[in-house]
From TrEMBL:
PROSITE patterns: ANK_REP_REGION (PS50297), ANK_REPEAT (PS50088), BTB (PS50097). The lineage of its organism: Eukaryota, Metazoa, Ecdysozoa, Arthropoda, Hexapoda. It comes from Nasonia vitripennis (Parasitic wasp). ANK repeats lie at residues 624-656, 766-792. Residues 660-689 have a biased composition (Polar residues). Residues 1-65, 80-140, 659-690 are annotated as: Disordered. This is BTB domain-containing protein. It holds the Pfam family BTB. Residues 94-103, 122-133 have a biased composition (Low complexity). Keywords: ANK repeat, Repeat. It comes from the Eukaryota. Residues 1019-1080 form the BTB domain. Residues 107-121 have a biased composition (Basic and acidic residues).
């Protein structure tokens, strides 16, 4: 149906070329057949989440002019019979213009006659409500237009009209503000600021031409080539998360759709993180939290941020066990299902959200996206609860279309269409409640009904009106941060309505520019929410004009603005009543002026700036925690850096750690205390970890504590002014991350500390060193410079011994070696490992082990893997050139590279004799299997004995063995890989004897005198077998076999005595069956070995479990290399379960020999199709049961 409406893409392109003179290459990508150029049609109108919905403006009376300007392209209104014929080549250009102009005039006349009360359009205001006759007529006209003619003709007509409008000077579409008085004395009091066709109805039915022009003019979200999750990850999230109880209501076809829609939310979040990270180059958990606040409604953002804090707290606790953290994935350590390592790789290497992506940023993003997925499912299930049944893909999109929290977020357009439903109706956002941690419930809307029109205002007529609205919302706590005067002017620029502005004038005033170039205007509540989130990100006390500009960039299509620089802060007065005293103004103005003088790069101005500064003078730290030297380094101003250094600036001043406190000026989660006026240069001590075990959470902090009575202050407000992620950073750290090599060389030559704020004697000082920052960015020149001045590649500043976690506190960073492997910086890793300082320190270094390592090495039951590898290296004569401490750091680096799927780096570290952990080996093997790297798979399989000893863990049994069998299943054409895996299976199964099958029927006594076997005496039934008669007794048969009971009670058994025909069983086999029944056991049975399989078939047919067990015992005794395949097939066909398990054990124990013996085993494993049976799955279950039964397993 979509193809009929839109037409074939090639035909569309041909019409474009014909109508525009052959110039159509710029729009080819819109119809390249990609998913972005198609839309999914929903049966109900108004719920099409994928289909782009252009605004169809209302029409004025016959004396008014049409107005529609969207991205510089006008779309003419068309009626059912307004399709223009294709101009023939012999017509002159002037005749074509006259003909098209006449058609447009006739169209407008028909539109004017069909509606008695048409609305005049200004792009954002309306005279009628959503239920007006004009709207009903407009929708009806669209439906009629859609059914008339072909989509290709509509597209061609739209292109002709666009061409005609661009060529004629009389088609200027301007706004006539005062024209409402001409249209029948229409009352100006009917002007509304919302619920108008122009600002609301973006989802009205449209024709193919409208869709073409809309797609041609709108920018869309980027389509991800590969999201950082798989369909299995999405399924696990739903199975293990809050939606697990409702999983039965979720149709399986919905999972791919959920994954696809979730990609759009991820793209939006990643774009905001990327912009927020650009000033400093660091993408941390703070940027991720701010991105959630910017994009999501308050309730949804609060839920996602709580999930982030919860996951990060669990992850921080796992760091207390250095040996155990390398045995689990990062997702398991954080209690998540989304792969944290893959998120980190995606953020740092694939889309490059920042020069450096902190590990906790990946934890936050993965946790937030997982929580968002659960919220999507729960909301959609709640919306579709009345419909009943399962949640299908169509019902999912229907529910999203009616959700104000999700519809704008999941649209394919670059801008965020927030505050609306798919029908175009304005909707209030949900606000968070004071619920407990992890609760997604929200309180009832706390705003009074009188505030809703103010919150949903889309346009205003004067600046004073806007000020009154903001003041009203500020008093109701819906605008917690005040707006500066300049911010109000900028906001008024975007919300200005000329009709409302000139409504009191009698005569019309013609605007000389298109009044509104935006298809939809967001409500005021969304302006304040997004701008407030940007202000909260930088810990500001007010919303300035740049915050409004950032909100316009996000909420309005086609609007963009530069990234806010780090030194943008300006002292501006508030526009509301929340003012500060004069002394604070003087201090701020003096500080701003002094820093401008200090960063000017002119020595004569620096001396004048000192008089404006406090006692710390040139080393004064501003309200953002930065000195003038740090600002100059961030801006890359070499002359300013030299001037400040020459003037005596301290090179090693650190950014202070954030302080916490309650604010009297602001309220709610966005409250923040006023920073201290003057900050000294000493860095504050690190936060003391607590010992509590209670789980407390707010949107700013979360702490875990034990029962000891330690005082710990749980934070209820964000830090005061300073950026927590950059605490203890020096000017060299900022320079190294941003890659200013010349400035870094100047700082180092003047005596800057090469490790920044990190000290070898202060292990509990969380920060990022310059070498770690330079390594993450991949700047080899900067790394070489820092190494030349003595930077330590193995220095780690990560806090591990702590019981508390705060969302606003810095956690430090692992060593530069691990940073390089996590970010995929292979060249930098070579540079770090080849530095001579590593080997010179090896000779004089004293081996220092932690308490956990000492206990592990002293435990007789466990042998550390690095000790095994050290002994192996000594035997081979190739002892590692790295020390034991360095080898442990390299093993941690291997863990990060494996988690981030950097397989090449992982294999190179293995080449340095770094010992495997089971998790790293298994994760690397999975990555190589997904990428189909056969040579790497073989290398990893050859290291199996070094990974797993005889003590197989639960992780190996439950996770590694299924992976090995999955690889084995896809390696039937790769003989080398098959034999390596077969050898691993043999090793895991062991050479102990296979558990024999016990026959429990040999000791049972006789049920009846054996002389009655085939005795006509007292016989009441006869069997005809191979033409011979066999006498039987019903009482013996029906009490022993269900099959005999059915046979003797059916109509097939007739006559006196009844005669039953037995087919497919030989006479002497049937006689053995009767002897078993009459004797009550198998003790007296004499069975030829050649008849065992046939007897087993008869036992299965007559449902005699005892006889079947006897046959299984007889068959298991003769299983060998020649008949194991035949035995296996017979066991499966005749339901001989124990014989089947015995054959599976024989196959596992002799798999290498069997694969090289003949092809029958290969055909059984890879080609034989047994009904309702998977051979490899059976082998996996048998091997898992064998390992579990061998001895008690470890829990890890």
């Amino acid at each position: 149906m979509e193809g009929q409406r839109r037409g074939h893409p090639q035909q569309v392109m041909s019409f474009i070329a014909e109508s525009t003179g052959g110039v159509s290459s710029d729009t080819d990508h819109h119809y390249s057949g990609s998913p972005l150029s198609l839309s999914v049609s929903i049966p109900e109108p108004g719920h099409e989440i994928l289909k782009p919905k252009p605004r169809r403006p209302a029409h004025g009376s016959s004396s008014t002019r049409e107005l529609y300007a969207g991205y510089g392209k006008m779309v003419a209104e068309r009626d059912t019979d307004s399709l223009a014929p294709t101009p023939t080549p012999h017509h002159s250009h002037q005749q074509q213009q006259q003909q098209q102009q006449q058609q447009l005039c006739e169209l407008r006349a028909r539109r004017a006659e069909s509606s008695s009360d048409e609305n005049r359009s200004s792009g954002h205001a309306s005279m009628s409500s959503s239920g007006s006759p004009a709207r009903r007529h407009q929708q009806l006209g669209c439906r009629e237009l859609r059914s008339s003619g072909s989509g290709l003709e509509d597209i061609k007509l739209a292109i002709q009209q666009l061409t005609m409008r661009s060529q004629t000077s009389s088609s200027t579409y301007s706004s006539l503000s005062g024209m409402s008085s001409v249209a029948g004395g229409r009352s100006r009091a009917a002007l509304q600021r919302h619920s108008s066709l122009e600002t609301v109805n973006t989802n009205a039915s449209c024709s193919a031409a409208d869709e073409f022009v809309w797609l041609d003019s709108q920018s869309r979200l980027v389509e991800l080539q590969q999201p950082p999750w798989s369909q299995q990850d999405v399924l696990r999230c739903l199975q293990q998360g809050r939606a697990r109880e409702h999983l039965a209501r979720l149709h399986m076809e919905t999972l791919p759709r959920l994954s696809y829609l979730l990609q759009r939310a991820l793209v939006r979040l990643a774009r905001e993180c990327q912009r927020l990270s650009r000033p400093l180059g660091l993408c941390s958990k703070h940027e991720v939290c701010s991105a959630f606040r910017i994009l999501l409604c308050p309730a949804l953002a609060d839920s996602c941020i709580k999930a982030c804090l919860r996951a990060a707290a669990i992850y921080a606790v796992s760091l207390r066990q250095p040996g155990e953290q390398l045995r689990q994935s990062k997702a398991e350590r954080a209690g998540l299902q989304m792969p944290v390592g893959r998120f980190l790789s995606w953020m740092s290497a694939e889309v490059r959200l920042g020069r450096m992506v902190h590990e906790y940023a990946a934890v936050y993003l993965a946790a937030g996206v997982e929580n968002l997925l659960e919220e999507m499912v729960l909301q959609c299930l709640q919306t579709c609860a009345d419909a009943g049944g399962q949640l299908t893909a169509s019902l999912l999109e229907h529910a999203i279309a009616n959700s104000p929290d999700l519809w704008g977020l999941l649209q394919p357009y670059a801008h965020l269409n927030a505050g609306r439903l798919a029908s175009g109706a304005l909707a209030m956002p949900r606000w968070p409640s004071a619920s407990s941690l992890g609760s997604s419930s929200t309180s009832s809307q706390s705003h009074p009904s009188s505030l809703e029109p103010s919150l949903l205002t889309t346009c205003v007529g004067s600046l004073q009106e806007l000020q009154d609205l903001v003041a009203k919302l500020s008093r109701s706590a819906r605008c917690p941060l005040p707006l500066t005067s300049k911010a109000l002017h900028v906001l008024f620029y975007y919300m200005r309505c000329s009709q409302l502005e000139h409504a009191e004038r009698a005569s019309g005033i013609q605007e000389l520019a298109y009044e509104r170039a935006y298809v939809v205007l967001p409500p005021l509540v969304e302006w304040l929410r997004v701008a407030g989130a940007h202000a909260e990100h930088r810990h500001a006390q007010c919303i300035d004009h740049d915050d409004i500009g950032q909100a316009a960039r996000l909420l309005l299509p086609g609007v963009d603005c530069p990234v806010r620089p780090i030194s943008f802060e300006q002292v501006t007065p508030f526009a509301s009543s929340k003012k500060i005293d004069d002394k604070e103004y003087v201090r701020r103005f003096s500080m701003e002026m002094a820093f401008k003088l200090l960063t000017s790069g002119r020595p004569e101005l620096i001396s004048q700036a000192l008089g404006l500064l406090p006692a710390t003078k040139i080393n004064t730290i501003n309200d953002n925690g930065l000195t003038a030297l740090m600002l100059a380094c961030i801006n890359g101003d070499e002359s300013a850096v030299i001037a400040l250094v020459d003037a005596g600036a301290d090179l090693n001043v650190e950014t202070p750690a954030p302080s916490y406190g309650q604010s009297s000026a602001t309220t709610g989660n966005t409250a923040m205390a006023t920073p201290s006026r003057h900050v000294t240069c000493q860095s504050p001590s690190a936060l003391t970890p607590n010992k509590n075990m209670n789980l407390n959470a707010s949107s700013s902090s979360l702490s875990i504590s034990s029962n000891q009575n330690n005082n710990y202050h749980t934070q209820t407000s964000p830090p005061m002014g300073f950026y927590a992620e950059t605490q203890h950073w020096t000017a060299l750290t900022y320079t190294a991350l941003l890659g200013h090599c010349t400035i870094a060389r100047i700082l180092l030559e003047r005596g800057a500390a090469v490790e920044g704020g990190a000290k070898h004697s202060e292990d509990d000082k969380p920060t990022i060193t310059p070498l770690q920052a330079a390594t993450a960015s991949g700047n080899t020149e900067m790394v070489a410079l820092l190494l030349a001045h003595g930077a330590q590649p193995f220095l780690s500043t990560l806090i591990k011994d702590t019981f508390s976690y705060s969302g606003s506190a810095q956690r430090g960073c692992y060593s530069a070696i691990s940073v390089a492997t996590a970010h995929g910086q292979r060249n930098v890793l070579h540079q770090l490992l080849s530095h001579p300082l590593n080997f010179s320190a090896r000779r004089g270094e004293k081996e220092v082990l932690s308490l956990e390592e000492i206990l592990a090495e002293g435990n007789a039951g466990t042998v550390p893997q690095h000790a095994v590898d050290s002994r192996a290296n000594q035997r081979d004569g190739n002892e590692s050139v790295f020390s034991k401490v360095q080898m442990k750091a390299l093993q941690e680096a291997m863990y990060h590279s494996a988690e981030s799927n950097h397989l090449d780096i992982t294999m190179e570290l293995r080449g340095l004799k770094v010992s495997w952990t089971l998790h790293c080996w298994m994760h690397s093997l999975l990555t190589a299997h997904e990428r189909r790297l056969d040579s790497v798979i073989d290398q990893l399989l050859q290291d199996f004995l070094q990974v797993c000893s005889d003590d197989y863990s639960t992780q190996f049994v439950q996770e590694c063995l299924p992976l090995l069998f999955n690889i084995f299943r896809h390696s039937k054409q790769k003989e080398g890989t098959t034999l390596l895996l077969a050898d691993i299976f043999c090793t895991c199964f062991g050479w102990e004897a296979i558990k024999p099958i016990k026959d429990a029927t040999l000791s049972s006594g006789s049920r009846i005198d054996p002389k009655f076997v085939n005795n006509p005496e007292l016989s009441d039934v006869q069997f005809r077998v191979e033409g011979r008669v066999f006498y039987g007794h019903k009482i013996v048969l029906v009490t022993s076999s269900p099959r005999f009971r059915n046979m003797l009670s059916s109509k097939l058994c007739e006559g006196n005595p009844p005669i039953v025909q037995i087919n497919d069983i030989r006479y002497h086999i049937f006689q053995l069956v009767m002897e078993f029944l009459y004797h009550g056991g198998c003790a007296t049975l004499q069975v030829n070995q050649n008849d065992v399989l046939e007897l087993m078939a008869a036992a299965n047919f007559f449902q005699l479990d005892g006889l079947l067990r006897f046959c299984e015992v007889q068959c298991s005794a003769v299983v060998d290399l020649d008949n194991v395949v035949s035995m296996y097939i017979h066991a499966k066909v005749y339901n001989a379960v124990q014989l089947l398990e015995y054959c599976q054990g024989f196959l596992l124990q002799n798999m290498v020999t069997l694969l090289t013996y003949d092809d029958s085993v290969k055909r059984l494993l890879f080609a034989k199709k047994l009904p309702n049976h998977d051979v490899l799955a059976g082998l996996l279950s048998t091997l898992q049961a064998r390992i579990k039964a061998r001895k008690p397993q470890n829990t890890k």
